[in-house]
Amino acid sequence: MENIQIKTDDIQLDQLLKLASIVESGGQVKYMIADELIKLNGNIVTERRRRIRPGDIVEVDGVGKLSVIKIKGE
């Protein structure tokens, strides 16, 4: 599981996947969602702008799991 650090209280799913270098554009996320390749905390994601918060686990089929953590002191 890879830790992804964010500075804010939340981040949109498509932005998170770009930050993690899994996709290059938000448009790619749309197709991944249509193919049910992304789960948030064990549930299939249906919206690309879904808000992700520290403590959430995002699982991408064929890639792995991402644990979202907030950078402290920012």
Defining key terms:
74 residues, alpha+beta, 5-stranded mixed β-sheet, two-stranded antiparallel ribbon, 7 strands, 22% helix
What is the secondary structure topology, with strand pairs?
Layout (H helix, E strand, L loop, with lengths): L1 E5 L4 E2 H7 L6 H9 L3 E3 L2 E2 L6 E2 L4 E4 L3 E7 L4
The N- to C-terminal Cα distance equals 24 Å
User: Order of strands side by side in the largest beta sheet?
Assistant: 1-7-6-3-4
As a percent range, the share of strand residues is 25-35%
Number of helical segments with 4 or more residues:
2
The helix/strand series, from N terminus to C terminus, equals: EEHHEEEEE
* Rg estimate, integer Å: 11 Å
Overall helicity: 10-25%
Shape: globular
Give your account of this protein's structure.
The protein is an alpha+beta fold. The chain has helices spanning 13-19, 26-34, and strands at residues 2-6, 11-12, 38-40, 43-44, 51-52, 57-60, 64-70. The strands form 2 sheets. Strands 1-7-6-3-4 form a 5-stranded mixed β-sheet, with no helix packed on it. It has a two-stranded antiparallel ribbon with strand order 2-5. Strand 3 and strand 4 form a beta hairpin. The radius of gyration is 11 Å and the shape is globular.
Summary?
This protein is α+β, with helices and mostly antiparallel strands and 74 residues long. 22% of the residues lie in helices and 34% in strands. It has a five-stranded mixed sheet, with no helix packed on it. Strands 2-5 form a two-stranded antiparallel ribbon.
